[in-house]
Amino acid sequence: MPYRAPVEDYQFIFDKIVSMDEVAQTDLFAEASPDVTDAILTEAGRLCDDVVAPVQRSGDLHPAALENGVVRASPGFKDAYDQIAEGGWVGISADPEYGGMGLPYAMCTAVNDMMSGACLSLQLKPLLSQGQIEALEHHASDALKAAYLPKLISGAWSGTMNLTEPQAGSDVGAVASKAVDNGDGTYAISGQKIYISWGDSDLVENVCHLVLARLPDGVPGTKGISLFLVPKYIPDADGKPGVANSLHVVSLEHKMGLHGSPTAVMEFDNATGWLVGEKHNGMACMFTMMNNARLGVGVEGVGVAEGAYQKALEYALDRKQGRSPIENGTGAIVDFADVRRMLTTMKAEIFAARSIAATCAVALDLGRATGGADHKARAAFLTPIAKAYGTDVGCEVAEMGVQIHGGMGFIEETGAAQYYRDVRVTAIYEGTNGIQAMDLVGRKLMDGGEVAYRLLEEVEANCEAGRSLLPELANDLWAMAESLRETTEHLVDQGMQDRFAGAVPYLRAFARVLGGHYHLKAALAEGGTGPRSVLASFFIKRLLPEASAALAHAREGAEGLYALSPQDLGAA
Amino acid sequence: MPYRAPVEDYQFIFDKIVSMDEVAQTDLFAEASPDVTDAILTEAGRLCDDVVAPVQRSGDLHPAALENGVVRASPGFKDAYDQIAEGGWVGISADPEYGGMGLPYAMCTAVNDMMSGACLSLQLKPLLSQGQIEALEHHASDALKAAYLPKLISGAWSGTMNLTEPQAGSDVGAVASKAVDNGDGTYAISGQKIYISWGDSDLVENVCHLVLARLPDGVPGTKGISLFLVPKYIPDADGKPGVANSLHVVSLEHKMGLHGSPTAVMEFDNATGWLVGEKHNGMACMFTMMNNARLGVGVEGVGVAEGAYQKALEYALDRKQGRSPIENGTGAIVDFADVRRMLTTMKAEIFAARSIAATCAVALDLGRATGGADHKARAAFLTPIAKAYGTDVGCEVAEMGVQIHGGMGFIEETGAAQYYRDVRVTAIYEGTNGIQAMDLVGRKLMDGGEVAYRLLEEVEANCEAGRSLLPELANDLWAMAESLRETTEHLVDQGMQDRFAGAVPYLRAFARVLGGHYHLKAALAEGGTGPRSVLASFFIKRLLPEASAALAHAREGAEGLYALSPQDLGAA
Asked: Acyl-CoA dehydrogenase/oxidase N-terminal domain location, by residue (chains A, B) (predicted)?
């Protein structure tokens, strides 16, 4: 049973859960009719199943390696990447003017999810290019766009994000890389950057780095940082990779997972770069890229969860162990109640996280297509939830996948352990999940909770609509939504430290309530009976109650949290 | 800040939380006075800090390897093991008649915990010998005892457990290895065993395998299995390792973690073995060994959690990132509310799991020293909780340790990832945590809940005692204990499938309530103010509420769990 991309799940979500029809009614996305999206999902699914999934183990067993200054990708990656590029999958949502498909970001999100389940290490490469394409579309000069976008969108070249430095991780404002104006329209960029995913590889002709650096007159902190495009090879007069730029890969990290994705330390030594956007406005430009990248990482988590789930299900259906505890069972361990509990939890969590991500993507699309502030605010609110919950689900589902495999889960040959190791970083990069939660209770509640309450009104309207068909589920969900509203009201009145103290459990509770909402919607869509209704019942009755504990935690605030001194914690 | 064994924590737990004084009042353990236990804990702590912890990274970086049929241990392991053996630490609880220290199992548990935090791969070796020593003490003939116990207790030889076969994992009754009576007091053992931890190594002169196999007249299932002692080298007339036995290591597994601990596939080919215990009674003999091994694995989880916690704390105290959000802060990331939340959660969970393990160990000791059925039943009840909760805490704390490290957590150099990889197997081996939970709601509630209710009476008495000093904590805990009682009453009335469906959340809730109980006890012991009271408040107000959701989950039963067919789950 090889990996099968969740095409049907996305078809259902687009059809019944999110407002994909509304997206297709906009001028911008008029082409995204159901038959088009169905065809594209099917085609992408085939690529993931037949081309991407087969290189998953190769990336783990034969890590990308730095050889004579060049990063050699894992065996099989070149061919798979070429097929991704040739199919146009790098530029699904990119501007058709430069060769993109111009499809909604919801489509791109679905494909990113499906591809992450096939091979996360490889999927990360197009994901990074997508972020760079978006940043250039929004902020680069026409000349830069013309020179770089067609290459990036076709996949001939690829993009990276160069934010982090040893002293500047979550605190991006501490960036120390320098930029000096060369007086000829270019800048000299110097500094060391770390954690640069796909910082180099032999898969593409050219690697384009988006680098945060400080001009001499840049003030300290985030407001003095500018963004530069720094290619590995400077395009020549014909637009082809020309002279080698003054930058190189210092080393690759030895990581717990994601071995197929080279993580580079990059050194820029008076490298030639071009300003993207306004001077000192690099953070804003970077955030254009990062917001969608956050949603992209969220579905990386969901995708890996899907891969881990399918592998665990296969094992559970195959592995015989003891007498079946049920009549007419399969005889395999899937018959055991606790194995069922784990599998059903995995499946229910994936659907919840996937629906949240799709909702966020649709809000982004509607915001872009209509300019509506409501849609944009909703997308901004859902982004940290989609990122943190999607990747938490990735970690938890991969963890259960290992557990279902028993001893075999700890043995690398099965591949269950690879999902567990690979996915772990998704809860860390693109802003740790703690940072996401701080963003949610900080910036995203700055509106006094307005967006949150609108989402909760939707949840409650759904409960009202479902009350006659599924009264118990509707009532349970309604009650939890009310608790969430009360806690939101409480948090809005608190200072930042009190909000931050409970940020992670608050985000978790919000995701649980939204998850219950989409599960109920799915159940109602099939008339209240059938597998989606069973899954909804499982989620709402067995998993949703956790939100109550998380909300209690979130309300506790910072009091007592600093009462333990570092010495009390165990500092020497 | 190198690893420091939690000596003071154990001194506090022995002094204030568990009935160590009661243990010392028995004839059997009269020597275990507070000053003796203090001295031994201190000495063991020194060994762990100075000798064992320094080889932790070596085991990961230089895995044990099979070379010309012999397993070569990781660099440094030989010297560290020799010092463990010379200090008498293998035989802490072993019979003094054969060279053991004869100390309570509570002491052994404390040392196992401390040593697991130092280096789990190496600690596993003495742990396995301890299990074998115990099985032989209880079930072997005097001749076997005389020949093997002194060697095993001194650490000159080591022991392994050979249960699992490819088709017989959680279902031990499916064992297919064969034993044939040689007619000379020995048996010919044949078969293949998998997952044999420390199945061989160059650390010791001889490796003694306890092997489950079936005699020709053994009935199918667990009741037809016998236990045999099968040494790598057959002792000669002087008791020294003599002729090589007919067994060998086929291969070592490539595992996600615990690289320093060789996991062997063993082949026995008419190997000479000696019967341990009665014929066809092998499972009962093995359970003598496995029950304590389960507690031992529980504190493996707790120990790794301690190591991961200390490493994360060190990083959090050291890593500067952004402006401190608090006045008079350290300036490092420990000042951030979410980092505090994680660190405090880790510390609170470790104390809870450690206290449960210590309580279980003391019950074992009192059961052994007094023969009291109450103590034995309590130990039996607490064993699956100590195993599953201890190792779950190990996994969760190691996971948070990675998160606190941010990007560095995913890089192998820091060692945070090693804890995360190493500890994962503890939730699987010695009976998966799902099996532990089934044991709890199945066998351990067979008494109609009697032991559970007695534990809850203790919890509630503690609440009564604390009501004047810490009314809020006492009330919260009391209420949750009542919910647990009601759920227990409910489960006792259910059939097995309904119990099993909620077994894991039920076990979790029971552990949470007990954890709250020991935290409250600790707070009361310091008069209701001070760091232990702050930690108790954190646990009871922020973590204990999760028990409520877990109990709701546990009460749901099997209904609906089988409503999703394998096809609904995604089977092809």
From this structure: 75-155
Residue of A471, A491, A534, A543 lying closest to A513 (CA atoms): A543
B472 touches chain A (CB under 8 A): no
Give the helix/strand (H/E) hosting A48: none
Which of A196-200, A266-270, A557-561 has the weakest average pLDDT? Answer: A557-561
Could you tell me which chain A residue has the CA closest to the CA of B194?
Answer: A407
**B318 contacts chain A (CB < 8 A):** no
Closest CA to B404 of B390, B415, B391: B415
Strands A263-276 and A247-252 come out as antiparallel
Q: What is the pLDDT of residues A452-491, one digit of tens each?
A: 999 999 999 999 999 999 999 999 999 999 999 999 999 9
Looking at residue A410, its pLDDT comes to: 98
Give kind and range of the element (H or E) at residue A20.
helix A20-24
- Which of the residues A278, A306, A430, A460 is marked catalytic? A430
Q: Which residues contact B25 (CB under 8 A, 6 or more apart)?
A: none
**Minimum distance, in Å, between the CA of residue B319 and any CA atom of chain A:** 9
From A9, which residue of chain B is nearest by alpha-carbon distance? B570
Residue to substitute from A335, A562, A567, interface B, most B β-carbons within 10 A: A562
Establish if A350 belongs to a structural domain: no
Residue B155 counted as domain residue: no
Return the structure tokens found at A396.
């938890």
Segment A381-395 shows an average pLDDT of: 98
Residue ranges of A 178-217 with Cβ closer than 8 A to chain B: 194-195
Whether B109 is covered by a domain: the verdict is no
Interface probe, candidates B1, B124, B562, chain A, greatest A C-beta count within 10 A? B562
Q: What is the mean pLDDT of the segment spanning A19-27?
A: 96
Q: What is the DSSP string of A59-127?
A: HHHS--EEETTEEEPPTTHHHHHHHHHHTT-TTTTS-GGGT-----HHHHHHHHHHHHHH-HHHHHHHH
CA distance B3 to B128: 24
In a domain, B467, yes or no: yes
Assigned token pair, A365: 């699309």
pLDDT at site A403: 98
A504 chain-B contacts, CB cut-off 8 A: 338, 341
Amino acid code (one letter) for A230: V
Q: How many domains is chain A built from?
A: 1
Which residues 6+ apart lie within 8 Å of A147 measured at CB?
A235, A239
Q: Tell me the one-letter amino acid at A194.
A: I
Which residue range is the domain that position B534 belongs to? 444-559
Query: A429, B407: Cβ pair inside 8 Å?
Result: yes
* pLDDT tens-digit map of A138-171: 999 999 999 999 999 999 999 999 999 999 988 9
Whether the pLDDT of residue A213 is over 90: the answer is yes
Question: Would you state the pLDDT for residue A472?
Answer: 98
| ipTM, 2 dp | 0.97
Q: What is the DSSP code string of A336-351?
A: SHHHHHHHHHHHHHHH
Residues of B involved in catalysis = 430
